[in-house]
Amino acid sequence: MAGYKPDEEYDYLFKLVLIGDSGVGKSNLLSRFTKNEFNLESKSTIGVEFATRSLRIDNKVVKAQIWDTAGQERYRAITSAYYRGAVGALLVYDVTRHATFQNVGRWLRELREHTDPNIIVMLIGNKTDLRHLVAVSTEDGKAFAEQESLYFMETSALDATNVENAFTEVLTQIYKIVSKRAVEAGSNGTASTLPSKGETINVKDDSSVLKRIGCCSN
Ligand SMILES: Nc1nc2c(ncn2[C@@H]2O[C@H](COP(=O)(O)OP(=O)(O)OP(=O)(O)O)[C@@H](O)[C@H]2O)c(=O)[nH]1
Ligand SMILES: [Mg+2]
């Protein structure tokens, strides 16, 4: 079949991390996105798990490798290894539990301490299906995201609302940065800096990419 690529073949590999308090739905967002599965009785994640899914953006195959760990301190794996090489993050809170929203600032600080300042971060208010229990308004979520220059979306892993959109948006924004890099490299004659096929793009190790395209301060 024309254009068919087996699963192992991809043009870009992007590492994403899921962070946020225990029970906000990180693992279910991941299983919804990668397997279209949801589990009402899922157990707290122990250690680190990851899952992958490839999608097509701009006629390129982008493979997302998404890491998931426990929100609860005592189950958490070594932090620096978890964040290493991440080019995107989904910071999740539970719209029915205000405390999980109050902790978002803490998660953001930890993320900033361990990753390049230019990585793509999306704030996610999950469990919007529980309409009668909402304790964090959309406006509050949006306002915090704007203040911290984060993307923002409300999702439900249960009914699948916006799950696809959230991951796709993060991956597309990363792709835009990386593909712009490729175009620039081509136009100024330094094509040798083009990412090779299947190369893992690591914003942290090459923040010059982001600086070169003039998107970011410092
Ligand atoms: N109603 C509803 N329940 C959800 C949703 N997402 C997750 N849950 C439930 O919330 C509970 C916790 O979900 P998990 O995905 O395990 O949460 P987690 O963030 O991975 O938790 P840790 O691994 O402990 O950090 C489970 O009972 C899920 O079924 C959602 O969108 N709507
Ligand atoms: Mg989990």
Poorly predicted spans: 189-196, 204-218
**Corresponding CATH superfamily:** P-loop containing nucleotide triphosphate hydrolases
How many H/I helices? 7
Q: How much strand?
A: 15-25%
Mean pLDDT: 86
CATH fold-level assignment:
Rossmann fold
- Chemical compounds bound to the protein: guanosine-5'-triphosphate, magnesium ion
Protein name: Ras-related protein Rab11D
GO cellular component, one term: endomembrane system
Keywords: GTP-binding, Lipoprotein, Membrane, Nucleotide-binding, Prenylation, Protein transport, Transport
Family: Belongs to the small GTPase superfamily. Rab family.
Concise overview:
It contains seven helices and seven strands, in the order βαββαβααβαβαβα. It is α/β, with parallel strands linked by helices and 218 residues long.
Describe the structure.
The protein has 218 residues and is α/β, with parallel strands linked by helices. The protein has a single domain, classed as Rossmann fold (3-Layer(aba) Sandwich). Helices cover 33% and strands 22% of the residues. It has seven helices and seven strands, in the order βαββαβααβαβαβα. Strands 1, 2, 3, 4, 5, 6 and 7 form a seven-stranded mixed sheet that branches. The radius of gyration is 17 Å and the shape is globular. The C terminus is likely disordered. Bound molecules: guanosine-5'-triphosphate (GTP) and magnesium ion (MG). Magnesium ion (MG) binds next to α1. Keywords: GTP-binding, Lipoprotein, Membrane, Nucleotide-binding, Prenylation, Protein transport, Transport. It comes from Citrus sinensis. GO terms for molecular function: GTP binding; GTPase activity. Belongs to the small GTPase superfamily. Rab family.
